[in-house]
């Protein structure tokens, strides 16, 4: 069984390279062209049917040795972006699991396509080694504009080590003119693929028919080098005499499909005909599936397959799957013929074969193919049964998108006909941010629940409806409403539903994460202890990740790091990229990195967060992460900081309050909004933070009359809300110092320092160091300061001095400035040294001297300072 990640069982014929036929003819023109393929970004192989496109690419890829070759055979059913990108990633993983270390098979199903594709492109670049992606039969996609757009995006940004090969019968619906002009496109067409007279003779010989030179030319001219036609002529000939060739060519001038029926299919034994018709029910098969469909024993079925392969009867073999089984697929020309034959078969016989194939695929775990076949024969009841059998496994393994992919194969009315299916699908639908449809599904499920008699089935459906209501409220950040539904779910769910009950307990524990974070922390720790005994790794991982965020927000960095490590230990690294819950771990790591002053690492974790986020994380957390990114950018002096912060504000004001913006951010906010947009807060847990935000605005706007009110607010805030309390005391200290109330300024700055130092939230003070320096210096003159207070306030003063130094007139030497100019243009230290004709060590020495003068610790900070000063463009 071939799988993508942990969740998707894929037929080998979809994602493995077809084996080159032993009857394939080497076409020198194609070999020469394809030998240069790794020098191009994209290779297109375009011709009508039967020209051996797949054979040519397969033979070439077989020469690449250890180069990873991902192969995806495209079918009509892959026209949905959801399914296409899932199989695309599956093909990458089959080629080399390392290609998928940055990827999640579900990323393609979420958010704007480029957001996923950026991660795909970065993953290919990070792979480092040459790799090839083959899309076979791309013309089969219909109404697939989103896929074409995504492929175009990939082509434009494909890293140098990656190459895309596309075979198609039609011109690609992708803009390639710029790629062609830049010399990055290698095109193989019908002229390259067609046989020469010599190759025609060789092809006939490989089929056991020896032609004279003149007869080989006659066949070539009659068929214009069409390889499939040559194979058909070979099947009709035995001796290769001129008369036999003439007769075969006369037959070939008729309609090719009728010809295949009359001269090829009808000439086979009845047993072989029955085998072909039975196995054509499915797109591909192995020996076991063939036995199931034909009733033959394994030895008999293997013998028929061997005969078909030996006679060149348009059968292709795919590389063996993970169990050593070869899979087989008919050439399109022959498959079309067999489809016609099936349409002429007795309907009962067709249904019998279809059901047998579907049941075999289902039993062997090829659920995508089983559901697809069920929907093809309009057995939607079976498709729904797969959803109902698999939904708990999909929920617990974080692979909800499997459910929507199966549902998308059915007409919408068939989905809505089953209340339990609707209840199950509500969560995956809301994860795609389609809250309206999710609400409709819940309402259908609730209506269905009312029609059920009392019993366990009704309890499950009723409880599941409450679960989905709780999730929907959570996604829309209605915490109290979410908690009410979670409580109702726990009352209604059967005791046996341990996973769902665990998730609802998690919802209840999280409702106070802002207004009483320590209570939430205790509740989460209790649920973790309970779930350790139950052994559900997915739920336990989600709990660890949520607690990691909470600990980080409380400044408990060591505990947050420990929780992240516990979550990481539950699953292998490659599997973690398939699990959205780990975005919370990356956010927790980002919070910790910012807390220890490593702003570049905080930005790196934001990139991991954004790359792993499928668009299914509650928007509130997305905005918090974006606002934290803005804070890091401000600390690094990056020009995009302001725009990033304002973007976060436009997304979710409540989330911005929770991250406690710095005064630099508030000054930018006031420069845009001033008093025109009074802060609003519609979330109970954010009220304390909103009060701090309002106090900061009053300070920046110069409203010193608010001093007494701000000081009262700082004293009244509960200490359980540490970040708001630290920031409030800091702002109160600023108001008091500015209005001459030095005693109050002294008290507030000490309170802020004591709480910040004890809770790991010192960056809330350091980020406002320039403003707080006066109050800090005042307190530092007090001999009664504790060691902890003195350490925090001393760092505030030092940070303020460093900022002042960086803003002072710059005194860099000409050589120091030259090195920094090279780095600002994108050069590495080694490249800068080479460009300036100095050693790498000398360049490093100039950099260290420059860092000291500028009061910075990295090239990013140094370049930012020089840009702000107008020295660098």
Features:
mainly alpha, five-stranded parallel sheet, 5% strand, flat, 48 helices, 873 residues, two-stranded antiparallel sheet, 9 strands, single chain
Structure description:
- This protein is mainly α.
- The protein contains 48 helices and nine strands.
- The strands form three sheets. Strands 4-5-6-3-7 form a five-stranded parallel sheet.
- Helix 13 crosses helix 17 and helix 26 (479-492) packs antiparallel against helix 27 (498-510).
List the helices and strands and how they pair.
Elements: E1 2-4, E2 8-10, H1 12-15, H2 28-34, E3 42-46, H3 53-61, E4 68-73, H4 81-95, H5 113-127, E5 131-136, H6 145-157, E6 162-168, H7 177-181, E7 185-188, H8 190-193, H9 197-206, H10 213-223, H11 227-236, H12 242-252, H13 256-264, H14 270-279, H15 287-294, H16 298-310, E8 315-318, E9 327-330, H17 332-344, H18 347-363, H19 367-376, H20 380-396, H21 401-408, H22 412-416, H23 419-431, H24 435-450, H25 456-475, H26 479-492, H27 498-510, H28 517-534, H29 537-553, H30 557-568, H31 573-576, H32 582-595, H33 599-612, H34 619-635, H35 641-651, H36 653-658, H37 663-673, H38 687-700, H39 707-716, H40 722-738, H41 742-759, H42 763-766, H43 769-780, H44 787-807, H45 814-824, H46 829-836, H47 840-854, H48 859-868
Parallel strand pairs: 3-6, 3-7, 4-5, 5-6
Antiparallel strand pairs: 1-2, 8-9
Helix pairs in contact: 5-6, 9-10, 9-11, 11-12, 11-13, 13-17, 14-15, 15-16, 18-19, 19-20, 20-21, 21-23, 23-24, 23-25, 24-25, 25-26, 26-27, 27-28, 28-29, 29-30, 29-32, 30-32, 32-33, 33-34, 34-35, 37-38, 38-40, 39-40, 40-41, 40-43, 41-43, 41-44, 43-44, 45-46, 45-47, 45-48, 46-47
């Amino acid at each position: 069984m071939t799988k993508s990640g942990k969740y998707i069982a894929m037929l080998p014929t979809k994602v493995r390279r077809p084996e080159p036929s032993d009857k394939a003819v080497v076409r020198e023109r194609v070999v020469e062209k394809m030998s240069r393929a790794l020098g191009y970004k994209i290779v297109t192989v375009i011709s009508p049917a039967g020209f051996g496109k797949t054979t040519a690419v397969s033979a070439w890829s077989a020469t690449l040795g250890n180069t990873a070759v991902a192969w995806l055979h495209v079918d009509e059913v892959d026209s949905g972006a959801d399914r296409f990108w899932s199989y695309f990633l599956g093909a990458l993983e089959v080629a080399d699991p390392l290609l998928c270390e940055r990827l999640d098979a579900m990323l393609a199903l979420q958010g704007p396509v480029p957001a996923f594709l950026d991660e795909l492109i970065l993953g290919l670049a990070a792979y480092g080694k040459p790799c090839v992606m083959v899309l076979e039969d791309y013309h089969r996609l219909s109404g697939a504009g989103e896929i074409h757009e995504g492929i175009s995006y990939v082509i434009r940004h494909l890293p140098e080590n990656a190459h895309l090969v596309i075979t198609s019968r039609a011109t690609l619906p992708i803009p390639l003119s710029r790629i062609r002009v830049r010399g990055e496109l290698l095109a193989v067409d019908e002229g390259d693929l067609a046989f020469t007279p010599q190759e025609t003779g060789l092809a006939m010989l490989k089929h056991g028919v020896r032609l004279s030179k003149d007869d080989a030319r006659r066949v070539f001219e009659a068929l214009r080098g069409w390889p499939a036609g040559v194979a058909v002529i070979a099947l009709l000939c035995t001796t290769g005499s001129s008369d036999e060739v003439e007769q075969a060519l006369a037959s070939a001038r008729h309609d090719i499909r009728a010809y295949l029926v009359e001269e090829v299919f009808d000439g086979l034994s009845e047993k072989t005909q029955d085998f072909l018709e039975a196995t054509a029910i499915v797109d591909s098969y192995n020996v076991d599936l063939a036995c199931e469909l034909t009733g033959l024993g394994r030895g008999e079925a293997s013998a028929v397959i061997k005969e078909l392969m030996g006679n060149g009867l348009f059968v292709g073999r795919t590389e063996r799957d993970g169990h050593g089984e070869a899979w087989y697929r008919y050439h399109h020309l022959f498959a079309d013929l067999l489809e016609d034959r099936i349409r002429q078969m007795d309907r009962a016989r067709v249904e019998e074969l279809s059901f047998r194939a579907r049941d075999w695929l289902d039993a062997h775990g090829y659920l995508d193919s089983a559901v697809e076949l069920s929907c093809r024969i309009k057995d939607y009841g079976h498709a729904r049964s797969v959803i109902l059998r698999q939904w708990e496994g999909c929920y617990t393994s974080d692979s909800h998108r499997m459910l929507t992919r199966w549902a998308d194969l059915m007409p919408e009315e068939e989905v809505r006909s089953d209340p339990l299916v609707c209840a199950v699908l509500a969560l995956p639908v809301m994860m795609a941010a389609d809250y309206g449809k999710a609400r409709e599904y819940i309402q259908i499920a609730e209506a269905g629940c009312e029609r059920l008699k009392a019993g366990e089935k009704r309890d499950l459906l009723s409880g599941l409806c409450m679960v989905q209501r709780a999730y929907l409220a959570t996604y829309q950040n209605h915490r109290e409403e979410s908690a009410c539904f979670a409580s109702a779910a726990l009352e209604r769910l059967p005791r046996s539903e341990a996973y769902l009950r665990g998730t609802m307990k998690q919802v209840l524990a999280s409702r106070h994460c802002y207004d009483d974070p320590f209570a939430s922390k205790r509740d989460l720790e209790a649920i973790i202890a309970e779930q350790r005994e139950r052994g559900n790794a997915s739920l336990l991982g989600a709990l660890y990740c949520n607690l990691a965020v909470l600990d980080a927000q409380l400044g408990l960095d060591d505990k947050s790091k420990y929780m992240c490590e516990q979550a990481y230990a539950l699953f292998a690294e490659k599997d973690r990229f398939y699990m959205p819950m780990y975005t919370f771990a990356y956010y927790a790591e980002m919070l910790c990195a910012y807390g220890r002053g490593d702003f570049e690492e905080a930005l790196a974790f934001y990139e991991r967060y954004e790359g792993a986020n499928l668009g299914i994380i509650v928007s509130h957390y997305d905005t918090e992460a974006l606002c934290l990114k803005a804070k890091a950018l401000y600390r690094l002096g990056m020009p995009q900081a302001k725009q990033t912060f304002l973007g976060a504000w436009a997304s979710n004001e409540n989330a911005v309050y929770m991250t406690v913006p710095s005064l630099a951010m508030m000054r930018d906010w006031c420069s845009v909004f001033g008093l025109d947009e009074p802060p609003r807060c519609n979330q109970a847990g954010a009220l304390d933070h909103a009060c701090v935000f309002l106090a900061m605005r009053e300070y920046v706007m110069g409203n010193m009359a608010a001093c007494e009110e701000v000081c009262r607010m700082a004293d009244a805030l509960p200490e359980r809300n540490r970040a708001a309390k630290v920031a409030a005391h800091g702002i109160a200290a600023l108001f008091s110092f500015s209005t001459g109330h030095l005693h109050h300024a002294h008290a507030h700055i000490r309170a802020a320092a004591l709480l910040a130092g004890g809770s790991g939230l010192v960056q809330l003070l350091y980020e406002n160091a320039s403003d707080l320096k006066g109050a800090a210096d005042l307190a530092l003159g007090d001999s009664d300061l504790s060691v902890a207070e003195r350490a925090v306030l001393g760092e505030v003063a030092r940070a303020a001095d460093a900022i002042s130094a960086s803003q002072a007139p710059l005194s860099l030497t000409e050589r120091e400035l030259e090195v920094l100019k090279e780095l600002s243009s994108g050069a590495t230290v080694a490249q800068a040294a080479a460009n300036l004709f100095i050693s790498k060590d000398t360049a490093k020495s100039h950099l260290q001297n420059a860092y000291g003068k500028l009061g910075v610790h990295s090239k990013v900070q140094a370049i930012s300072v020089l840009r702000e000063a107008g020295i660098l463009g």
